[in-house]
Amino acid sequence: MEQESNGKELYELKRKQKKGFKTQEQRKDMRNGAPKNIGLYLLYTFISIGIIGGLWWFISTRPKLPPTSMQGHIEESPNAHIADTPISDAIQRHMLEHADGKGEPSIIIQYNCEKYICEPNLVEKLIALAKEYPDNVYLAPNNYDGKIILTKEGGLEILNQFDEQKIKDFIRR
Q1: pLDDT digits (tens, 9 = 90+) for 132-160
Q2: Is the pTM of this model over 0.70?
Q3: Where residue 98 sits, what CATH number does that domain have?
Q4: Is residue 95 one of the residues assigned to a domain?
Protein backbone atom coordinates (compact mmCIF):
# COMPACT_ATOMS: atom_id res chain seq x y z
CA MET A 1 0.00 0.00 0.00
CA GLU A 2 2.90 2.25 0.76
CA GLN A 3 4.34 1.67 -2.69
CA GLU A 4 1.01 2.49 -4.28
CA SER A 5 0.88 5.81 -2.56
CA ASN A 6 4.54 6.35 -3.43
CA GLY A 7 3.68 5.54 -7.04
CA LYS A 8 0.84 8.01 -7.02
CA GLU A 9 2.96 10.59 -5.27
CA LEU A 10 5.78 10.00 -7.72
CA TYR A 11 3.37 10.34 -10.65
CA GLU A 12 1.96 13.59 -9.24
CA LEU A 13 5.46 14.91 -8.58
CA LYS A 14 6.56 14.16 -12.16
CA ARG A 15 3.38 15.69 -13.54
CA LYS A 16 3.91 18.89 -11.52
CA GLN A 17 7.55 19.06 -12.59
CA LYS A 18 6.56 18.60 -16.22
CA LYS A 19 3.86 21.27 -15.86
CA GLY A 20 6.37 23.59 -14.17
CA PHE A 21 8.82 22.97 -17.01
CA LYS A 22 6.14 23.92 -19.55
CA THR A 23 5.35 27.02 -17.56
CA GLN A 24 9.03 28.00 -17.49
CA GLU A 25 9.27 27.43 -21.26
CA GLN A 26 6.12 29.46 -21.79
CA ARG A 27 7.53 32.29 -19.70
CA LYS A 28 10.75 32.17 -21.68
CA ASP A 29 8.78 32.26 -24.95
CA MET A 30 6.73 35.17 -23.70
CA ARG A 31 9.87 37.10 -22.75
CA ASN A 32 11.45 36.41 -26.13
CA GLY A 33 8.24 37.40 -27.98
CA ALA A 34 7.52 40.45 -25.83
CA PRO A 35 9.62 42.94 -27.84
CA LYS A 36 7.84 41.87 -31.02
CA ASN A 37 4.43 42.27 -29.39
CA ILE A 38 5.31 45.65 -27.91
CA GLY A 39 6.39 46.86 -31.34
CA LEU A 40 3.15 45.64 -32.84
CA TYR A 41 1.10 47.28 -30.09
CA LEU A 42 2.98 50.54 -30.59
CA LEU A 43 2.38 50.35 -34.34
CA TYR A 44 -1.36 49.78 -33.79
CA THR A 45 -1.44 52.62 -31.27
CA PHE A 46 0.23 55.06 -33.68
CA ILE A 47 -2.08 54.01 -36.51
CA SER A 48 -5.12 54.51 -34.26
CA ILE A 49 -3.89 57.91 -33.12
CA GLY A 50 -3.27 58.87 -36.76
CA ILE A 51 -6.77 57.84 -37.80
CA ILE A 52 -8.42 59.64 -34.88
CA GLY A 53 -6.27 62.74 -35.44
CA GLY A 54 -7.09 62.73 -39.16
CA LEU A 55 -10.82 62.50 -38.49
CA TRP A 56 -10.63 65.27 -35.91
CA TRP A 57 -8.70 67.50 -38.36
CA PHE A 58 -11.17 66.77 -41.17
CA ILE A 59 -14.19 67.58 -39.01
CA SER A 60 -12.67 70.66 -37.40
CA THR A 61 -11.51 72.22 -40.69
CA ARG A 62 -14.75 71.72 -42.60
CA PRO A 63 -16.58 75.01 -43.03
CA LYS A 64 -19.81 75.43 -41.11
CA LEU A 65 -22.52 76.14 -43.68
CA PRO A 66 -26.32 76.36 -43.59
CA PRO A 67 -28.48 73.47 -44.82
CA THR A 68 -29.49 73.21 -48.47
CA SER A 69 -31.86 70.24 -48.17
CA MET A 70 -35.15 69.63 -46.37
CA GLN A 71 -33.96 66.44 -44.69
CA GLY A 72 -34.56 66.66 -40.93
CA HIS A 73 -36.85 69.69 -41.04
CA ILE A 74 -39.57 70.54 -38.55
CA GLU A 75 -42.98 71.98 -39.39
CA GLU A 76 -42.23 75.43 -38.02
CA SER A 77 -41.67 78.80 -39.66
CA PRO A 78 -39.62 81.75 -38.39
CA ASN A 79 -41.31 84.64 -36.62
CA ALA A 80 -40.52 87.15 -39.37
CA HIS A 81 -39.08 87.44 -42.87
CA ILE A 82 -36.41 89.80 -41.53
CA ALA A 83 -35.03 88.42 -38.29
CA ASP A 84 -32.54 89.91 -35.88
CA THR A 85 -31.63 86.53 -34.38
CA PRO A 86 -30.32 83.38 -36.10
CA ILE A 87 -32.81 80.87 -37.51
CA SER A 88 -32.24 77.26 -36.45
CA ASP A 89 -31.11 74.73 -39.06
CA ALA A 90 -34.30 72.66 -38.62
CA ILE A 91 -36.50 75.69 -39.37
CA GLN A 92 -34.28 76.66 -42.31
CA ARG A 93 -34.81 73.17 -43.75
CA HIS A 94 -38.57 73.69 -43.52
CA MET A 95 -38.25 77.09 -45.20
CA LEU A 96 -36.46 75.41 -48.11
CA GLU A 97 -39.61 73.37 -48.61
CA HIS A 98 -41.99 76.34 -48.65
CA ALA A 99 -42.22 79.86 -47.29
CA ASP A 100 -44.44 80.39 -44.24
CA GLY A 101 -45.62 76.77 -44.40
CA LYS A 102 -47.22 77.27 -47.81
CA GLY A 103 -46.31 78.65 -51.20
CA GLU A 104 -43.05 78.44 -53.07
CA PRO A 105 -39.68 77.49 -51.54
CA SER A 106 -37.79 80.12 -49.61
CA ILE A 107 -34.49 81.81 -50.30
CA ILE A 108 -32.54 82.60 -47.15
CA ILE A 109 -29.99 85.40 -46.97
CA GLN A 110 -27.75 85.21 -43.93
CA TYR A 111 -24.90 87.40 -42.82
CA ASN A 112 -22.13 87.06 -40.25
CA CYS A 113 -20.78 90.38 -39.02
CA GLU A 114 -19.32 88.84 -35.86
CA LYS A 115 -16.64 86.78 -37.59
CA TYR A 116 -16.28 89.02 -40.66
CA ILE A 117 -15.80 92.76 -41.05
CA CYS A 118 -18.99 94.16 -42.56
CA GLU A 119 -19.35 97.59 -44.10
CA PRO A 120 -21.43 99.89 -41.85
CA ASN A 121 -24.60 99.78 -43.97
CA LEU A 122 -24.51 96.13 -45.08
CA VAL A 123 -27.47 95.03 -42.96
CA GLU A 124 -29.57 97.99 -44.16
CA LYS A 125 -28.80 97.10 -47.80
CA LEU A 126 -29.76 93.46 -47.19
CA ILE A 127 -33.00 94.49 -45.45
CA ALA A 128 -33.97 96.74 -48.37
CA LEU A 129 -33.27 93.92 -50.83
CA ALA A 130 -35.22 91.34 -48.82
CA LYS A 131 -38.22 93.68 -48.65
CA GLU A 132 -38.39 93.60 -52.47
CA TYR A 133 -39.34 89.90 -52.20
CA PRO A 134 -41.80 89.74 -49.28
CA ASP A 135 -43.26 86.33 -50.12
CA ASN A 136 -40.30 83.99 -49.98
CA VAL A 137 -37.03 85.76 -49.13
CA TYR A 138 -35.81 85.69 -45.53
CA LEU A 139 -32.95 87.56 -43.91
CA ALA A 140 -31.19 86.67 -40.67
CA PRO A 141 -27.81 86.90 -38.97
CA ASN A 142 -25.93 83.70 -38.31
CA ASN A 143 -22.55 82.26 -37.36
CA TYR A 144 -21.74 80.28 -40.49
CA ASP A 145 -18.42 80.47 -42.33
CA GLY A 146 -19.20 83.22 -44.81
CA LYS A 147 -19.92 86.95 -44.68
CA ILE A 148 -23.09 86.70 -46.80
CA ILE A 149 -24.58 83.28 -47.53
CA LEU A 150 -27.49 82.70 -49.88
CA THR A 151 -29.34 79.38 -49.68
CA LYS A 152 -32.25 77.64 -51.30
CA GLU A 153 -33.01 73.98 -51.79
CA GLY A 154 -30.00 72.43 -53.49
CA GLY A 155 -28.19 75.77 -53.82
CA LEU A 156 -25.69 77.79 -51.86
CA GLU A 157 -23.64 80.86 -52.70
CA ILE A 158 -21.17 82.68 -50.48
CA LEU A 159 -20.37 86.35 -51.05
CA ASN A 160 -17.45 88.24 -49.52
CA GLN A 161 -19.16 91.57 -50.14
CA PHE A 162 -22.58 92.94 -50.95
CA ASP A 163 -23.43 92.41 -54.62
CA GLU A 164 -27.05 93.25 -55.31
CA GLN A 165 -27.04 91.77 -58.81
CA LYS A 166 -25.60 88.42 -57.68
CA ILE A 167 -28.19 88.20 -54.91
CA LYS A 168 -31.05 88.99 -57.31
CA ASP A 169 -29.72 86.47 -59.82
CA PHE A 170 -29.61 83.82 -57.08
CA ILE A 171 -33.20 84.61 -56.06
CA ARG A 172 -34.46 84.32 -59.65
CA ARG A 173 -32.69 81.02 -60.46
Answers
A1: 988 889 999 999 999 999 999 989 999 99
A2: no
A3: 3.40.30
A4: yes
